[in-house]
User: What shape does this take?
Amino acid sequence: MSQLAEDAPSSEPAEAPTAAASDPSYDGLRLQRLTKSFGSGFTAVDALDLDVPRGSFFALLGPSGCGKTTTLRMVAGLETPTSGSITLSGQDITFAKPYRRPVNTVFQSYALFPHLDIYENVAFGLRRRRAKEVKAKVEAMLDLVELTSQARKKPAQLSGGQQQRVALARALINEPEVLLLDEPLGALDLKLRRAMQIEIKRIQTEVRQTFIHVTHDQEEAMTMADTVAVMNAGVIEQMGAPAELYENPRSTFVANFLGQSNLISGTVVSRSSDVTTVDMHGIQVSVPSGRTHVDGDRGWVGIRPEKVLIGEEGAELDAPGNTIPGGVISDVSFVGVSTQYLVRMPWGQELQVFSQNTGRTRMFRTGERVELSWRPEYAFLLDQAQDASAGAQRDGQ
Amino acid sequence: MSETVRRKGRIGYLLLLPAAAWLLLFFVVPFYSLVATSLFDPAGSDFRGYEMDYAFGNYVDVVRDYAGPLGRSLLYGALATMFCLVLGYVLAYAIAFKAGRWKNLLLVLVIAPFFTSFLVRTLSWKLILADDGFVVNTLQALQVLGDDGRLLATPVAVVAGLTYNFLPFMVLPLYASLDKIDHRLIEASGDLYANPFVGFFKVTWPLSLPGVVSGTLLTFIPAVGDYINAQFLGSTNERVIGNVIQSQFTDANNYPVASALSVLLMVLILAMVLVYVRRAGTEELL
Assistant: This one.
């Protein structure tokens, strides 16, 4: 797994900052070979290379314990890297004290000062830097987060969502070059979370500062960020736009952590310039070369459940492509907009199929024999050396 | 529903009863008797008995006669509280933030002196500060004290003794409120451009104020009333109000004067505490 991630930058030279070791012209945040080991011998972050362009909304996504928060704390200066460097606008800040960095953090716990009112909490950073026009700035910021009427209250008198906004305002008012958000919505209920996601996105669009958002919630990362970096075991597994990550995962971890995937064992039969043909339990399927992420001949054929079409056995399907007969429905759950099927294949594996309830096909019942198919351009091929269930337990944490 | 509520209320009162009876018997009654005695005719005596004649003049008399010891009590108490705060804050801060796994051991060490008697500890200070003891000899060698300078029987010894004896009462509440401070708040202050020094005064100190207030009260109140330290470590020049009350009660048998002094001391301390708590602005934190 880590092998794959370390290879990743070399396969994509545009994202390999090592080439431009100390390029002072890069105006974003650049992490180079950043490593953090703790005394116990545990390496939380392992030779991480990462470029965050100025003004982008960047998400670090991963399960708990993957090193994303440690990375964030190193950028904030709250943790000292074991090795590697952090540069911001060409300036080395690897060992700069936290209070000397143009970086502010929205803490997971909010960490609002309980003895100060909302106004003074927001003004804290400005007062420390002896900024001018504190009053006007604080009022404008409270207006932005819609908390003007709460200015003289203490944090404990506010609701969770309001406290969250105070934490955001308190960091944003300092106009940091980089704003770090450490699981900022983790303590909110689902409805408020959705509202705050939109709110934070709106604010980011308004202020155009660099936001780095750490989260374990893949949906949150995908809705909010322009670029998502999926992190696992101290390294970045894959990085890109949310749709790109979802549609073309390069590892089983990403395939399972972002949404769900069916991974079917197969053997590469032939490769051409644009298509890889794979033998999947006796059935030949094809995968585009650009979505083939395996060098050897054993691979996992991956397909998202919503890309799989389900039909009567022997019926003509409207998806010309890979067709697999011989499935038996083993479970049906109707969830309103779609129906989720579990289909047992002849080789014993159960595949997930999400079928939109468009009304054009009938619902199948448990025990019925069906045929599955998908368009070849939606399939992807992953290295079979990787664990097929890596990253799948994200809801269990 | 309302029946159970009423029943619960009744149980609550029942549970209050033993403590209330205790306080009534051993606090309210003696307090009433103390105030009453302070207003007795001072001309009375053990033999002839006392008469109640609302002699408020007793208070004027004791203020006139014992202003010196009264002032010394407040001064020594205030000085000891100040030293306790400085020493105790550093110690409590170190235990709360820097001690790691030694935390519990250090806390036990803070409390350890309580395992021996207050009297014995104060008497051993007499040895430490004795004229030929190593402290005096060292200070003389360093020219801090003159060749015939001494510590015992001076205000320094009394304040040192008070500071030593009441230090744990300062350290424990300070530790309790420092230990409660969320470390992430201090990180947040650093993230918001406060260097460690500013961060301390803007975050740690204000959040430890409840501990500072309760620590100073727990130190100041008993230190003002204490007379053991003045008795053993001071001379007649360091007589404090406690010494006077004690001798008026037990040697001179002048109960009205002794009572008036006791009530006066109590009222004074209460007034000072109220002003202090107001000024500290921590009513809501207490």
Observations:
- The interface with chain B takes residues 76-78, 97-99, 103-105, 107, 109, 111-115, 124-125, 128-129, 170-171, 174 of chain A (CB under 8 Å).
- Residues 254-396 of chain A form a domain with the OB fold (Dihydrolipoamide Acetyltransferase, E2P) fold (CATH 2.40.50.140).
- The first strand of chain A starts at residue 29 and ends at 37.
- The CA atoms of residues 9 and 15 of chain A lie 6 Å apart.
